[in-house]
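Ticket #400: bound-state structure for pyridoxal-5'-phosphate.
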Amino acid sequence: MSDLFSKFDPLIELRETLLKSGVTDPFNLVMERVESPTVAICNGRRTILLGTYNYMGMTFDPDVVAAGKKALDEFGSGTTGSRVLNGTYVGHKAVEEALKDFYAMDHAMVFSTGYQANLGIISTIAGKDDYIILDIDSHASIYDGCALGNAQIVPFRHNDIEALDKRLKRMPPEAGKLVILEGVYSMLGDIAPLKEMVAVSKAAGAMVLVDEAHSMGFIGEHGRGVAEAQGVLDDVDFIIGTFSKSVGTVGGFCVSNHPKFEILRLVCRPYVFTASLPPSVVATAATSIRKLMDSADKRAHLWENSKRLHAGLRQLGFKLGTEEPQSAIIAVIMPDLEKGAAMWEALLNEGLYVNLARPPATPAGMTLLRCSLCALHSEEQVGEILGMFAAAGRAVGVIG
Ligand SMILES: Cc1ncc(COP(=O)(O)O)c(C=O)c1O
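RESOLUTION: The complex was predicted; output attached.
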């Protein structure tokens, strides 16, 4: 019998070598207590959270928490059913209404996660004779949505408008085409040139889907994302998003103005063949989304945090993923995995949690320490964070 697990041997070996060097497992951290969106207790010590995607700090918002508790009392702990059977409660309708209001769009469909939203929408709308043209740095859930469907997949170089245009022009004019882009690319924290890319896509007769997982709530005047900030929201056919970042809970969604959108509720398998979100989750999401509509001050403070951290890290001598801060994600580029893991651990010992990211999740084989800022990080906390980066960076030898 051949062992089906032998394909994992290189990864097992890499992991064992890393752990033998004495570093804490960076992918097995336990939060012992969470005190706020920016502070938790890890390994018995106070730790500033800088790797949670909790951009707008909604997880402890008193109105959000109260809505969840109320729904738990009134509707119980779960729906035990699909949205198309017994799993649609008033709360599911209410959160879809909140999304329609938030984006000023006609339709909203809520999934159990953002991952499932991409799986479902992409695999359902692009069929056998259609083409999907996507940025090569797309999130795993976008690739998995492509793998679940039958369309032909055509990747293009990251953020390269000309490469997208060339691919589109090579396709049969009558073929169905779906261009998939992200507002913010979460590994380096860079944004897409959506204005140009949407124009090129529309000129070629393609539909456009934009995943705004890392921009909803923060980027754009109303927090609708990069498509809003670049003035192309009306030209985007489908926006995908998640509740697991700015909204502060779990769940995913697609919003659209397509007149036939509602048929997806009957044909989209990752929507139909899974249980719907618990009532407490949709209640917290709806409350959070409505509060995010009115959060211009928090958005402004988050931009300040992002600029302050980016400038401070650069001044310390760290190599960063973008020249200028483009989002609430700031990626610090490490020389290799060993140094990255050592730096991650040194930061944790200082009292700071960031995300360690390595290939295949990262582009160009990079090891990254990804920092995601929160609107509730204070100016003092950003100062503390920079002090910790300075100490850890010097101890590990990443900066001089
Ligand atoms: C771009 C992008 N899309 C989708 C998702 C999936 O979101 P969820 O956590 O809701 O499954 C993520 C999560 O990291 C993401 O970064």
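RESOLUTION NOTES: The mean pLDDT is 96.
TICKET STATUS: resolved
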